[in-house]
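Appendix B, record 7
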Amino acid sequence: MSKFDVAIIGSGPGGYVAAIRCAQLGMKTALIEKYSTLGGTCLNVGCIPSKTLLDSSHHYEDAIKHFDTHGIEIGGEIKINFEKMIGRKRAVVEQTTKGIEFLMDKNNITVFEGLGSFVDATHIQIAGKKKETIEATNSIIATGSKPGSLPFITVDKERVITSTEALELSEIPKHLVVIGGGVIGLELGQVYRRLGAAVSVIEYADRITHAMDSACSRELTKVLKKQGVKFYLSHGVNKVERSGETVHITATNKKGEEVSFEGDYCLVSVGRKPYTAGLNAAAAGVQLNERGQVEVNDHLQTTAANIYAIGDVVRGTMLAHKAEEEGVLVAEFLAGQKPHIDYNLIPNVIYTWPEVASVGKTEEQLKAAGVQYKAGQFPMRALGRARASMDTDGFVKILADAATDEVLGVHMVGARVADLIAEAVTAMEFRASAEDIARMSHSHPTYAEAVKEAALAATGNRPLHI
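Structure tokens (predicted):
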């Protein structure tokens, strides 16, 4: 029987990063993955393929809508080769997953293909092409999450689909009905809207992306409406039925009236749920809570002292980079170090265009907590860089403590804010004040100048360029 210092079940961003860090710290490490490719949801059917399609569809939209304005004339009709677009997506996924295989080899990590399940707290059975059992002094559960649904919806994976199937369609929908106005639904909705589909988003709450600052929700709604996406807010879906190639959806609006929708595809995007099927957690003394999450303490230690859990399978936001940080934390804790994660400083991003990014507290959270704050906001349209690139939608908003001026939250909508949010995370990690950011030199012309200008507004000084 093979023996390891640590075994990780699940090879998503949390699992494979935990494996690398454990190996770097001198531990004999095993990584168990039930699928034939490494990388989990993120690399195979999540972050990477969705961003690939977002990029391809963005290029197409630019070609048909914006090239002429830039003085670029293309003779003949611009056409979509959807099969080729999906093929490029597959190639990017394959290249990325092969990269994870390389990292496993480089770090001398033993990879097992098969379903990992606990025999007891120190033994894991792997059911793959052959059945084998390994022994591990410590284990890390990194089994991630799966798309959620509603009890009355039958996801047939053909016309009533989840994000997994939406990334592998053989045709562009005529009318895509999206149930859920969260990150995944909006990103994939925008992909197919750019490619010519009619897109309707049905959301139970009174706004999309309800976990983010309401100003970001309003701005993104406005922009996506301008792009042709239709929104039905405060609508509770109560029936989804398929008839041939048509999906019928029935919902109730806030007035209590029944509203009907028809589309050739229905994307069910109502969140994700922890995935623990086949883990046999109870045999190892690992407890799950009522939401199906693995119970952990501040060190991400489960109810079994030598078993830890990270990522989507535990409490907190379901984000790849959050899982990575947790994987590193557990590895370093096992090595006797004293790592720490500030969950308030885990950024959140929506990769629509314009992008949406945030870190720290929203205005709603500060109001609910009774915190006195100052807000400074600056529109992207006032930037020379934004006008030069024709990306004028959005803003940067900075929230700072009214007494100390410490930055409490930063919220952005605009071009490349997924990258720009890192400046805010860095500033907040060092407990910067709005004045600190306002006094920093920002390159001109850049989108980052909006951060400086918003900081000037938050300090009470007048922004320079509006």
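Remarks on this record: The CA atoms of residues 68 and 74 lie 8 Å apart. The first strand starts at residue 3 and ends at 9.
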